[in-house]
Structures are given as C-alpha cells and as structure tokens.
Write a structure and sequence with these properties.
single chain, de novo design (two linked rop proteins), 7 helices, rod-shaped
C-alpha cells in the first residue's frame, strides 16, 4: 500500500513536469506566431505605403531622400530578423509615412484624390492591425515570462534553459504627449 502511494505521487509529479514543459513550449510557439503577425502587419504596412508612394511619386521629384528610403525598405524583413530589427524597420516606416503625409498635404490635387484618401484609410487600418499584433505579441511574452519566474514552473523553466523574451516597446517619441497648435 505504501508503494502505491509513492508511485501515485511520482506519477503526479511526472505528469506535472510534462504539462509544465508543454505549456512553456506552447507559449514559445504563440510568441513566434505573434511575432509572425507583426511581420505580416509590417509587410502589409510597407505594401500600402509603397502603393501610396507610387501615386505620389510624380509630385515628389524633389523628394530624393524619401525615394531612397522607399528603395532601401523594399528589401523587406529578412527571415532571420529579431524583434529589435523589426522595431528599427517599424521606426523607418513611421518616418516614411510621416514624410508621405507631408507631401500629400503639400499638393492639394493629390490630397483630394479618392485613391489617396482610400490609401490613407488603408494605412489607418494597417496601423490598427499592427497595434493588435504588438498587443498579442506582448501578451504572449508576458505569459511566457511569468512562467519563467513564478514558482514552481520556474524550476522547470530553469531546467529547460528558457530565457526571458523582450517586449515590443514603443519608441520614445511615440510616448510623448501630442501638442496641438
């Protein structure tokens, strides 16, 4: 009878260890999936901005700097990019979008174009999708990091060699208050 009790305790512990390892692995996969969602959103954002650029390029012959940035960004996201590389790409796309919005404002006939207005709405939609992707990524990273530090799952995580993941954070300028004149 005594051996049966010990055997049951060992089986319960073994199942708990397996379940905890599986939970950590599933969460890692969710993080990868969410990071892929950010890639998709950044690619969609780039494609939308490229289309907008094609529409406005006849108005921007003097905007050589923007042209060079678009050409550089056309290389896209490499499969080996990490989250820091994606943050850099996002910052570059933000700057490019601001630059194109200024160009659209400078040319009234372009600003009134239905196509440009549709693209501006598409850019807003893409931005919402990108925000949702970031939130999903950060939520999964939060859950994963909690598994690594909360007892008793931290024992299994340390044994697996699991490392904390970085959150996708906003740039400093995006955290500042917007000033209206």
């Amino acid at each position: 009878m005594e051996y049966i009790g010990i055997f049951i305790i060992i089986v319960v512990i073994a199942f708990w260890v397996i379940a905890t390892k599986n939970n950590i692995r599933k969460t890692e996969i969710k993080i990868e999936e969410a990071e892929s969602g950010i890639d998709v959103a950044l690619t969609k954002r780039f494609d939308t901005l490229s289309k907008m650029y094609s529409l406005v390029k006849k108005y921007m012959a003097h905007e050589q700097d923007t042209l060079e940035k678009v050409i550089k960004l056309r290389q896209g996201i490499s499969p080996n990019s990490n989250i820091a590389d994606k943050k850099v790409l996002e910052n570059e796309l933000d700057n490019l979008q601001k630059s194109m919005n200024v160009i659209v404002e400078q040319y009234p006939e372009l600003k009134s174009s239905e196509t440009v207005q549709e693209l501006q709405h598409a850019v807003l939609d893409v931005e919402e999708h990108l925000q949702a992707s970031r939130r999903a990524y950060n939520s999964n990273v939060s859950h994963y990091n909690q598994l690594l530090v909360v007892f008793p799952s931290s024992i299994i995580a340390n044994n697996m060699g699991a490392k904390r993941k970085d959150f996708f954070e906003a740039r400093d300028e995006a955290k500042q208050d917007v000033k209206f004149d």
